[in-house]
Specification:
The complex is a heterodimer of chains A (about 325) and B (about 290). Chain A is an all-alpha fold and about 325 residues long. Chain A has a domain at about 20-235. Chain A has 14 helices and 2 strands; from the N terminus they run ααααααββαααααααα. Chain A has helices at about 1-20, 20-45, 55-75, 75-100, 105-125, 125-130, 150-175, 175-185, 190-195, 200-225, 235-245, 250-270, 275-290, 295-315; strands spanning about 140-145, 145-150. Chain A has a two-stranded antiparallel sheet with strand order 1-2. In chain A, strand 1 (about 140-145) and strand 2 form a beta hairpin. The longest helix of chain A is centred in the C-terminal third of the chain and has 27 residues, at about 200-225. By secondary structure, chain B is mostly helical. Chain B has a single domain (about 1-285), classed as ABC transporter involved in vitamin B12 uptake, BtuC (Orthogonal Bundle). Chain B has 11 helices and 2 strands; from the N terminus they run ααααββααααααα. Chain B has a two-stranded antiparallel ribbon. In chain B, a hairpin with a 2-residue loop joins strand 1 (about 130) and strand 2. In chain B, helix 1 crosses helix 9, helix 2 packs parallel to helix 4 and helix 2 (about 40-55) packs across helix 8 (about 185-205). The chains are: A mainly alpha (about 325), B mainly alpha (about 290). The interface of A and B includes residues 277, 281 and 282 of A.
Chain lengths: ~325, ~290
């Protein structure tokens, strides 16, 4: 079943690429680049039950970090993405050490504060980040001497990384650590009582989560090739949360669907301009209240109930 | 020296606004156990509707009263439609109130546009000078309103029957229900009070600072920081926290740079959350993970 999903996804990707429509390819790239941080957030907020409102910061640090490391050391693009991801993952672990003393609302506010501090840093550190003007002329990724500077050539790279993250996440969730994560989400007291080191598990998940975000951010920087502080604000953290909520919080494939759904919805709502946030907000509220197991699951359950009612009507 | 006095005064004024917003948080938190992330947006809705009523030609006092009523209605609708279904679930409560805040901002952008809007001052514009510092009369309005609201709330919580019911619902909702209190109604009352306080804060500060559709988020977080610094609990703690934050911010803006002003507030928040989550007053072991 799981293998089937993977093959189906690859088949859909191939079909889209074969159309050679650059619009479709760029959409797929955007989906993959947002799926990485969204899955990272699902690991910590969904499976471990520790909310974070600052994940856009890890994404942004990955992006800025990759570009700045590339410029400082003169290393190839793929290496600076990896270096930046390693640093951001360490930072995420350290942030976890700091914020996981807290829980609930306090954790939410602390991560929100972290996100805003990083965002202020991007805007104010003119000498390093270029301030509000950002960084431009970022080199594209290149492999074996070929510059991956269009949608078609970068698509395999971002999707291979995304699929690797999906598979690794599923393995992590199925592992003993994954069991501990899910136990913590259910009840920390119980998880601790059976011998789990709750805080160290949380920090580990935060590290993995930050790594996913930073990988996505680094690739994003070399794909879009222009960075400004705008895309890494609190709004993006909330959008990631929305994607995870639509996916049903504890479902990696559902989150992938959530990312695709929100990206396509964004395309549909483009004529509305900045007012599309109303739709996102309503969707977030409705999803969390009425579809706690994800939009797909909720709609499927509704349809099932409808069918049952119709069936009962016929039988009666 | 006069510089420092000036910063002190502006810090006091801004701080009392933060305190007012912070008290709005506690009104809801004490009854429902939910932190309302849309609290700052109540202030935005209050200020924007007051400006609308005022430009429509209504006298100032009527515009203010109507704006407070509008905000209370908004708060009541939110409580019934979005908060009630997720009561008791912290994580879903957080996400739902964030969603509500996003909706409020979006609707405000549609209704009032994205431009910052000014509001006329309540009384005359003659600046008051003393010891080399200047003071706008509107600042006195802010200080007076905040002080009166805080004192009234403190008395309400500690001296009245309604206040006792509030505290009972906060301490143990189950026991409160056993002795016949309607926890749902108390939750609605909490939201109404918090809406009114938020609107009041937004309206008195509107003539000093421009209001726009997204000014709520910053105000809301600053109000929460005030609560954390003071210690989550009553009006007095929120007021002290707000004033500490306001004064620190004013001095940071004056002596360092205005760009880092927001980062300083959030650094304060992180520092307090991590090292002294109980705030300046009170111990609050519940927050520890």
């Amino acid at each position: 079943m799981k293998k089937l999903r993977l093959f189906a996804l690859v088949a859909v990707l191939l079909a889209c690429v074969l159309t050679r429509s650059s619009y479709l390819e760029s959409l797929l790239n955007v989906i993959a680049l947002q799926a990485m941080p969204a899955i990272g957030l699902a690991l910590i907020a969904g499976y471990t039950g520790q909310i974070s409102l600052g994940h856009a910061a890890f994404y942004g640090l990955g992006a800025y970090g990759a570009v700045l490391i590339g410029r400082a050391l003169g290393v190839p693009a793929w290496l600076d993405v990896l270096l930046a991801s390693a640093i951001v993952a360490t930072l995420a672990w350290a942030i976890g050490w700091l914020v996981f003393r807290l829980k609930g609302h306090y954790l939410a506010m602390a991560t929100l504060a972290f996100g805003i501090i990083v965002q202020v840093g991007f805007v104010e550190l003119h000498g390093v980040t270029g301030g509000p003007n950002g960084l431009s002329d970022i080199s594209p990724l290149s492999l074996f001497g070929h510059a991956l500077d269009d949608d078609f050539s970068i698509l395999p790279v971002v999707w291979i990384v995304t699929l690797a993250i999906v598979i690794c996440s599923e393995n992590l969730i199925a592992s003993p650590t994954g069991l501990a994560m899910r136990a913590i989400a259910e009840s920390e007291t119980v998880a601790r009582s059976v011998g789990n080191d709750v805080r160290s598990v949380k920090r580990l998940v935060m590290l993995v989560s930050g790594l996913c975000c930073a990988l996505g951010g680094g690739l994003y920087a070399h794909y879009i090739r222009y960075l400004s502080p705008g895309p890494f604000d609190v709004g993006f953290s909330i959008k990631l949360l929305l994607m995870v909520a639509i996916g049903g919080f504890t479902d990696v494939w559902g989150v992938l669907f959530g990312v695709a759904f929100i990206t396509l919805l964004g395309e549909v709502l483009k004529p509305l301009g900045a007012y599309d946030v109303v739709a996102y907000g309503v969707l977030l509220v409705v999803c969390v209240i009425y579809f706690p197991h994800g939009l797909l699951g909720g709609v499927a359950a509704l349809a099932g109930r409808g069918l049952r009612i119709i069936g009962q009507g016929r039988a009666g | 020296m006069s510089d420092a006095l000036q910063f002190l005064i502006s810090g006091l004024v801004v701080g009392s606004i933060y305190g007012l917003i912070g008290v709005g948080f506690t009104c809801i938190y004490n009854v429902t156990g939910i932190i309302n992330f849309a609290q700052g947006d109540f202030a935005m809705v209050g200020a924007m509707s007051a400006i609308t009523f005022q430009t429509a030609g209504m006298p100032m006092w009527l515009a203010i009263i109507l704006a407070i009523i509008v905000t209370c209605l908004v708060a009541a609708v939110i409580e019934r439609s979005a908060i009630r279904p997720v009561r008791g679930d912290v994580m879903r409560g957080i996400i739902v109130t964030i969603g509500v805040g996003v909706v409020l901002q979006g609707v405000a952008a549609i209704v009032w546009g994205t431009d910052a809007q000014p509001m006329p001052v309540f009384s005359d514009e003659q600046l008051i000078h003393f010891f080399g510092a200047t003071l706008m009369p509107q600042s006195l309005w802010v200080l007076g309103t905040a002080t009166m609201a805080m004192v009234a709330l403190d008395l309400l919580f500690r001296r009245t029957y309604l206040g006792q019911m509030f505290r009972a619902c906060a301490m143990n909702p189950f026991a409160a229900r056993l002795v016949g209190m309607k926890v749902e109604t108390m939750s609605l009352v909490g939201f109404l009070m918090s809406g009114a306080l938020g609107a009041l804060a937004g309206i008195v500060v509107a003539p000093i600072a421009l209001t726009q559709y997204d000014s709520g988020l910053q105000l809301g977080i600053k109000g929460f920081v005030a609560c954390i610094v003071g210690g989550f609990g009553g009006p007095v703690a929120a007021a002290i926290g707000g004033i500490v934050l306001g004064i620190l911010e004013a001095f940071a803006t004056g002596y360092i740079s205005s760009g880092y002003k927001n980062a300083i507030a959030f650094a304060l928040l992180l520092g307090f959350l991590v090292f002294r989550p109980g705030g300046l007053l009170g111990e609050f072991e519940r927050v520890r993970g």
